[in-house]
Design goal:
Number of strands: 31
Low-confidence stretches: none
Structural class: alpha+beta
Largest sheet: 7 strands, mixed
CATH superfamily of the largest domain: Aldehyde oxidase/xanthine dehydrogenase, molybdopterin binding domain
Radius of gyration: 27 Å
Distance between the termini: 39 Å
Number of domains: 3
Shape: globular
Length: 757
Amino acid sequence: MTGFAIPHDLLDHAALLEAAEARPDADAKLRGSARFLTDRIARGQLFGVIVGSPHAHARVIGIDAAAAMALPGVRAVVTARDVPGVARYGLRHVDRPVLCGSAVRCVGDPVAAIAADTAEIARAAAALVRVVYEALPVVDDARAALEPGAPAVHPGGNLLHRFDHARGDPGGALAACAHVVEDVYTTPRQMHAYLETEGGVVEPDGAGGFLVAFGGQSPARDRQVIAAVLGIAPEKVRVIASPVGGSYGGKDELTIQPIAALLAWKTGCAVRMHLTRPESVDLGVKRHAMTIRMRTGCDAAGRVCQHQVDILADTGAYATHGPEVLDAAAEHAVGPYAWAAVQLSARLAYTNNGIAGAFRGFGAVQAQFALERQMDRLARRVGLDPIEFRRLNLCAPDAPGPLGQQVAPFDGPHRALDVLRQHRLWSAPRPARDSRWRYGTGLALVHRSDGFASGGPNRGRVALALAADGAIELRSSFTEMGQNLTGAAVALVAARLGCGTGDVRAVLGDTSLTPDSGPTAASRATNIVWRALDAAIPAWRSAVLDLAARRLDRPVRLRFAPGGLADADGRLSLSYAELAAGATPAERPVREVELQPEESPGGMEAAHYAFGACAALARVRVDTWTGAVQAQKLVIAAALGPVVSAMGLLGQLEGGAVTGLGMVLTEHLPMEGGRYLVRNLDGYLVPTIADAPDIEIIAIRNLRDDDRLGPRGAGEIGVNVAVPAIANALSDALDGAALRHLPVTPEQVFAAVEALS
């Protein structure tokens, strides 16, 4: 593909900064006046706490809560027997108890919950609950969990999910290989480390219903689960899930919301719950730890032939998003490369370790770290420049997807590589080494799926409305988690209509006010809003102009403008507020659209249809005296199509890159015997702004002329590309050291340095 002609429509970093608009929530957040759902504090609320298991695996013999109930100020103690409806919940696998009745499967697993007048009373009562356990064997290793005779974490056994795929002739492809790299890579558990830990309030409405105000990513799904737990109709539950004080995937899944709802149902009072950081570490999900074996080969000219991948992932005590994470890891282990033969095998094990689930990068980043290390090592074997090696092996833009599925034609990988090939960081000489400092430059290329695989919740409903006060409302159940979806939605509506951003209001994350847009996940929200506006605006615009003509009682040609509707000369004829004030609710235009899934024809399981792409260059400096690594520069060429919000794009890619930096260099949550060895941020090293490299973003705005999907998501791909780019730069600084295990510790650096001497 070296002769592929690529047109570029670029916004460099300076242009993005110039175009970056102020975030609608910036002022409130900078002043500290922004309210998250854990700030919904009112007089008369009860405080809820959990009684969690001290054991990683045990049978529950009995629970005695008499002493706790006798404590003044305690309003309720609930156990599994008190759940009036469905006692378990989950996504693809319904395996997680609201409260554990017969067994606990991880440390912190809830066996009871207490509602009391104050947090202090609730915690004192929790200490009085007596639970009798019978310890069971602890399964704390994914490989051992799948051995014959291993103790069963769940009745069906410890193999939760597996994925297998093969195509081509593996034997013939291997015979054609002149160079083969085979190795095992490991990636760690990683903590989301959001500032707002899991929390919120459940308020009875006095008519048998409940308002649930908890940070989350899928309010409609949360409503269904909570209604089922309480044994009531979903219409009796209102979920407000926005804004969220950080999530990164960690709040895509229910944790304590069903327990808070159960306490509110039991007491008839509003109940507030908010996990401490140690409780959040125990109960919150983490990135899946994975062991990835790859055997990858190419011929003497550098063309890749054979790629064999085996993945073992630890999902912990419950499934949550584990099967989807494993599928994504396997699919993205192929990359945007043209293999003659591919063999994929992936397994997901239940253990008694902490629960793993959705995390920004969603399985793909673990596999992409291993794949891009393999590609760099093969390029070195062949003697080709890493960019040219990748360019040589790219799939054609119209080629099938990683699993052979039909995908939306996309040339993003070609565009991203071509832009970085010309970047000064790649062509400039490396800084001179001395006795202490070594420098390296690394490259990575990734493509990243948008939305869910075939059969996932890919539908989405969005509404455009003229509100009673004249605001033009974009209504969606998507949630604002800090990603600037609010700003992106406002900017997009204003740009499409021609009105001002001050005329637009984004109404997000409330099941009583918004249609079900599906989960705010899988980098899909901006694309769904983009496509929904394409479908909604023509009819809605016509309805607004018809209403204006009736109000003015004369035919007139009007257009949308900042502040209102303007005539041909640009003079405002009617403000939006005036238009709305004279209309009945039935007259004010509302247009709701439902988008059908964009999926690969044939419904291949685990296969995605749409992909975005990024390439990245990283420059690192290694201190050979201390083993410390400093990421100095990171350049990301993002082939994601039209830029809806420059501020949002910069924030997502820069934030994702720093998350990736932590995964490569510092973040690791070790476990022993099913117990986290670190339960607070004083022992878990998250990169700060002082650790962040100089980050340069280049936006490649143009898509293929036949593209009909619009912008690709930026929410995750910054993590996906930063991890292998930084790892490859570090390997380059250490003269091609293998670097198979994340995070790369000073001890690994010392070992690599010693191997060079």
